[in-house]
């Protein structure tokens, strides 16, 4: 690290979250400096190409595309910009997709402000950074070794494919209305599937379901 702060560009479709991250980073340290932000893929690409930050904090899911799409559009123009995924999702497929696209690390939004500053500094210095349980996904994906296929789970096998789809989105933090829109079904149908999943898993609420899904790497 040099004495100059690491310049950071924020990409997330939730303006309130971006404002919170910017405030936190600006208030707790001089090591990083937020130089721009965007709430969509198009805005992100234009902004990053314009300000040329050292590190981009990148959300994985956005309405007009994902973090991987931003990476694909920017990396050929600015190969020295480093991308660090910052997402609510800890799903294996999300982690692997954005790392394959060229991100240098992946941390979840449960990370503390101080840990986030440390992660930004580390990726700017050339390190790879992952939230603890996510590193295993990357190792499994790139090891290409036998035995890495998912093991049969009798409890998971009780769920229908549609119930798994609903559970996966629920565990990622989607609201019922968002799940309905994503799967092209009604909110009432979402509620019916969630009730069925709760009954089959003998759990009592969405928070227990999220943990259950995460333990089985369904999300």
From TrEMBL:
Matching SMART domains: HTH_LUXR, REC
InterPro entries in UniProt: CheY-like_superfamily (IPR011006), NreC/VraR/RcsB-like_REC (IPR058245), Sig_transdc_resp-reg_C-effctor (IPR016032), Sig_transdc_resp-reg_receiver (IPR001789), Tscrpt_reg_LuxR_C (IPR000792), WalR-like (IPR039420)
GO biological process: phosphorelay signal transduction system; regulation of DNA-templated transcription
All copies of domain HTH luxR-type, residue ranges: 152-217
GO MF terms, alphabetically ordered: DNA binding
Modified residues (4-aspartylphosphate): 59
One Pfam entry name: GerE
Domain Response regulatory residues, every copy: 7-124
Keyword check for Phosphoprotein: yes
Coiled-coil regions listed in the entry: none
Record-linked PANTHER family: TWO-COMPONENT RESPONSE REGULATOR
Name of the featured protein: DNA-binding response regulator
Species of provenance: Amycolatopsis taiwanensis
């Amino acid at each position: 690290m040099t004495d100059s702060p690491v310049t950071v560009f924020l990409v997330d479709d939730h303006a309130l979250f971006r404002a919170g991250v910017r405030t936190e980073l600006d208030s707790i340290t001089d090591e990083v400096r937020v130089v721009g932000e965007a709430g969509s893929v198009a805005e992100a690409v234009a902004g990053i190409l314009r300000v040329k930050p050292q590190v981009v904090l990148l959300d994985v899911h956005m309405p007009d595309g994902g973090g991987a799409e931003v990476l694909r559009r920017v990396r050929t123009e600015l190969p020295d910009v480093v991308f660090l995924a910052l997402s609510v999702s800890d799903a294996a497929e999300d982690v692997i997709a954005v790392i394959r696209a060229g991100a240098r690390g992946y941390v979840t939004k449960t990370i503390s402000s101080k840990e986030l500053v440390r992660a930004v500094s580390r990726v700017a210095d050339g390190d790879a950074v992952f939230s603890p349980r996510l590193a295993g996904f990357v190792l499994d994906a790139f090891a290409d070794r036998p035995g890495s296929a998912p093991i049969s789970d009798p409890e998971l096998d009780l769920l229908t494919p549609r119930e798994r789809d609903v559970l996966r989105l629920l565990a990622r933090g989607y609201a019922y209305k968002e799940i309905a829109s994503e799967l092209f079904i009604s909110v009432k149908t979402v509620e019916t599937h969630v009730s069925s999943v709760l009954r089959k898993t003998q759990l009592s609420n969405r928070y227990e379901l999220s943990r259950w899904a995460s333990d089985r790497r369904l999300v």
